[in-house]
Design a protein that fits this description.
- By secondary structure, the chain is of the alpha+beta class.
- The protein has one domain: Alpha-Beta Complex (Hect, E3 ligase catalytic domain fold), CATH 3.90.1750.
- Helices cover about 35% and strands about 15% of the residues.
- The protein is built from five helices and four strands.
- α2 packs across α5.
- The longest helix has 16 residues.
- The radius of gyration is 24 Å and the shape is elongated.
- The protein starts with a helix and ends in a 34-residue tail after the last helix.
- GO terms for molecular function: DNA binding; DNA strand exchange activity.
- This is Recombinase family protein.
- Pfam families: Recombinase.
- InterPro entries: DNA_bind_recomb_sf (IPR038109), DNA_bind_recombinase_dom (IPR011109).
Length: about 160
């Protein structure tokens, strides 16, 4: 398997946006599944173009367009070099990884993938904190405590 990886072949189940295929002589490879590949291209382009949009919002937009995966899988997907035609190989002895050119078609250009990685490594976008509106008529709110449980009383 390590030899196949070093040759640039993807081993295992194809990631979202790709399908496992077999050539006439029995060699396995992955090929882009165009309807999913379009959504994935849009995801990467949106990450780069939208400066303040959190990944969770981009994920929700992609799900509405037809992407079928969990949020955790989505986070892994935007960091996966397979989409730009590369394969990550882990050296088991040193626990270091290297990325080599795969022999499968890419879904996005390498430059776009690099831009997304730089943005993901940059400062995190925090969601705005929304404060609850306080009813001015309840001026003693939160001051009195329940004698039996000790929690603040409201209302």
């Amino acid at each position: 398997m390590q030899k196949a990886r070093l040759e640039g072949r993807y081993i295992g189940k194809a990631p979202i946006g790709y399908r496992n295929k077999v050539t006439a002589d029995g060699h396995k490879y992955i090929a882009p599944h165009e309807s999913e590949a379009i959504i994935i291209r849009e995801i990467f382009e949106t990450i780069v173009s939208e400066k303040n949009l959190p990944l969770s919002s981009i994920y929700r937009q992609a799900v509405l367009k037809g992407l079928k995966c969990s949020l955790n899988t989505f986070y892994e997907m935007v960091r996966n070099p397979v989409y730009c035609g590369r394969i990550r190989i882990l050296n088991k002895d040193t626990a270091e990884s290297q990325t080599i050119r795969g022999n499968h078609d890419d879904v996005i250009p390498f430059l776009l993938f690099e831009q997304v990685q730089l943005k993901l490594k940059g400062p995190k976008q925090l969601s705005p904190i929304i404060k609850k509106s306080i009813n001015e008529n309840l001026i003693l709110r939160g001051i009195f405590q329940c004698p039996s449980c000790g929690k603040n009383t409201y209302g």
